[in-house]
């Protein structure tokens, strides 16, 4: 079911977990916190999703067999840090976001990875062989 050696399925679950974490955080912040916290969580979460996509595509380009040195993939790997940093600095300088909330939004991968780990442990315990 959930526990399998399918890396694509796990990556998909982590991506969806990131989306859910960002969505829940943004909705909760709209109810209880100032708008800068909400925009910070939203910006950080969207940058986290974009960063995850860029990282995945950069690694795929770097590890693809039969190609020489993938200059574009390596460049995108490094360029993503500058894009994320520039977006955060610009939003903060324009006083659109809370910096702490933006950094929390960037941590959506951590939430999704922990959720995936707990799910894996749970299903391993529940579906142990011999029980």
Written description of the protein model:
- This protein has 131 residues and is mainly alpha-helical.
- It has one domain (7-126).
- The chain contains five helices and no strands.
- The chain starts with 6 loop residues before the first helix and ends in a 5-residue tail after the last helix.
List its salient traits:
131 residues; mainly alpha; 5 helices
How would you summarize what this structure contains?
This protein has 131 residues and is an all-alpha fold.
Largest sheet: none
What's the mean pLDDT score?
85
Distance between the termini: 17 Å
Approximate shape? flat
Helix % is: over 70%
Structural topology:
Elements: H1 7-32, H2 35-63, H3 71-93, H4 99-106, H5 108-126
Helix pairs in contact: 1-2, 1-5, 2-3, 2-4
């Amino acid at each position: 079911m959930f526990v399998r050696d399918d890396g694509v399925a796990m990556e998909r679950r982590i991506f969806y977990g990131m989306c859910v974490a960002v969505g829940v955080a943004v909705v909760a912040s709209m109810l209880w916190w100032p708008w800068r916290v909400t925009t910070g969580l939203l910006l950080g979460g969207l940058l986290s999703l974009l960063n995850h996509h860029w990282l995945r595509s950069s690694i795929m380009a770097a590890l693809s067999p039969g190609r020489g040195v993938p200059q574009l993939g390596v460049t995108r790997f490094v360029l993503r840090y500058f894009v994320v940093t520039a977006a955060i600095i610009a939003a903060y300088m324009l006083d659109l976001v809370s910096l702490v909330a933006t950094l929390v939004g960037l941590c959506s991968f951590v939430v999704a990875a922990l959720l995936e780990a707990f799910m894996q442990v749970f299903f391993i315990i529940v579906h142990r062989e011999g029980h």
